[in-house]
Amino acid sequence: MLSYRHSFHAGNHADVLKHTVQSLIIESLKEKEKPFLYVDTHSGAGRYQLTGEHAEKTGEYLQGIARVWEQEDLPEELLPYMNIVRRMNEGGKLRYYPGSPLLAKYLLRDHDQLSLTELHPTDYPLLRAEFSRDHRTQISKGDGYQQLKAKLPPPSRRGLILMDPSYELKSDYEAVVKGVVEGYKRFATGTYAIWYPVVLRQQVKRMINQLEATGIRKILQIELAVRPDSDQRGMTASGMIVINPPWKLEAQMKKVMPWLHKSLVPEGTGHTLVEWIVPE
What we know:
Elements: H1 13-29, E1 37-40, E2 47-49, H2 53-58, H3 65-69, H4 79-88, E3 96-98, H5 100-107, E4 113-118, H6 123-130, E5 137-141, H7 144-151, E6 159-163, H8 171-186, E7 191-198, H9 201-213, E8 219-225, E9 237-243, H10 249-264, E10 271-278
Parallel strand pairs: 1-4, 1-6, 4-5, 6-7
Antiparallel strand pairs: 2-3, 7-9, 8-9, 8-10
Helix pairs in contact: 1-5, 1-10, 7-8
């Protein structure tokens, strides 16, 4: 299925959480001079117009990045991410939002590498155009999980693999676990960041159980809920599961999550979570 377009959801609360975690991992990798590879299995279009038809139709960014944009007391953990958002929106008006590959493009150094994959026939050309002059980037049209076999391990033996499928299909929850296993076989020291939505809690629990059953160690779960779990239609929460997280990430997210929850969910519903699924 290729009906999902992230342009309808760009900048929502799930993106804020995902990109906070992504930027902190990248900043940690940059603390060593040695280059690293950034792999994005489901890249999307790269750049999103918040004043465009799709974003305006849902208005999800208004309860996401727009609420963070208005805050003056940004925690230092958010600065790498928010500095990129500001860079894209000079003049003080929020009009554009970076997808995960564009965020990585701005955060990575000249000697780091990016490997991006997108299958959607509309988003792929947009992604290719966005990165057409970036010598560090390789772009593929196809199955992002298959790219893990081709790209891993990187010569530097350092890297971040971001996996955030649309979860349009229930099978996506199993596919992402299989993708992790395939990648881990080839590159056990890499950092794997898996985004997930909470639509039905049982689907997430099943995925976590499958990850536990792999025998992989050092699996950290980070979750932000904007309202309680429900059997009604719609996403109530989202999270990031990080394998081999940088040593600072747990403490960073425990510090920043109360601020994020207060800013994104001023009514105080939902919850935050930072805990180990499988410790070291």
